[in-house]
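We emphasize that the prediction below concerns an isolated chain of 225 residues; any contacts that depend on oligomerization or on bound cofactors are therefore not represented. The input was used exactly as deposited, without trimming of termini.
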Amino acid sequence: MANDTKTYALTAEPREITGKASQKVRRQGLIPGVVYGHNVQSQSVQVPRKEFEQVYLRVGRTSLVDLSIGEGSSPRKVFIHEVQRSAVHHDLIHVDFVVVNLLEEMTVNVPIVLVGEAPAAEKGEGLLLHQTEYLVIKALPMNIPPMIEADISGLDEVGKAIHVSDLTLPENITVMTPGEDMVARINEMRMVEEVEEAEAGETAEAPEAGEEGEGEGAGDTEEES
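Result of the prediction step, given as a token string:
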């Protein structure tokens, strides 16, 4: 599968407001962030929310972005390494950009996307399970594919499966995930029903809310860097 060679660009500005005061930056339609990595000093930045969301929607975390810090500056090749969101509203609150060395291999997780239709699932003979959702690979930054496709059109009966070793992969990457790991499989409906019943039983035996500890997500996460 050929890599997506389209170039995406973002322009950031240096950021002087840090810590909990970064909420002021967000109210201006900007996302606080930090840039670090190969041959650069860590630097606090801010990027326009709308422009960032448009780029992130297309590139995710496995495609390179040309990041300029200030108008007219030379762009740097970066990955969007981590995106933080608020616990309650799921709003973007912080982003990490990692500057990469284009001559040095990286180990990354690449999403596996199921393509096509599984005949056995379409006929209601079984249920399609997506077992392994990410493939761990090692490659030069320019060779990292945005995704790995798994064709499920051959899953035409219960018990059939696709393993990592069955995937069609680019020649310029090294796969770290074991070849015997299962990517997708057609399971019997009865097996699925048994799992669901077991999970329902565990839920019924769970302690009532408030009996043990405090729930997660009591409030929005505050970025402090």
